């Protein structure tokens, strides 16, 4: 929406995933980490993830989460329709052409608004380079980047105070015409 309806968006904050046209071609490591997105397209993904007491899901979620958090996710995903709903996000939003691209597919116009990218140091599925490459989609030095320490793939759950503080600072930056005073977010 920020690209297609820029008049409706004053600021944009993105968490973990950088701009779709840059994230997958950031480096070979990102392609390796993204295999699960292709797997989620498989019509039997739900059955395979839930098989053997959710063994595959436990393996996927356990990369940087405690057993208690993994069990919380499995309990939630075990509710009727929950797993399919979660996988449907990937099924609806995965651009196979972007995943296969070896060069960034940048939009014809760049974002001319404040954009902040948040990435967590415990992220197991998305590379930092994929997030920072999003700078190429934003004009005029309006891209701010912040690394959230001590959080994993779901940084909003792992470090809500840090994420909320970063978002609040960023929203405040949009209220001040002198955004240079927020250079510590860069």
From TrEMBL:
This is AB hydrolase-1 domain-containing protein. It comes from Tetradesmus obliquus. InterPro entries: AB_hydrolase_fold (IPR029058). Gene3D superfamilies: alpha/beta hydrolase. SUPFAM superfamilies: alpha/beta-Hydrolases (SSF53474). The lineage of its organism: Eukaryota, Viridiplantae, Chlorophyta, core chlorophytes, Chlorophyceae.
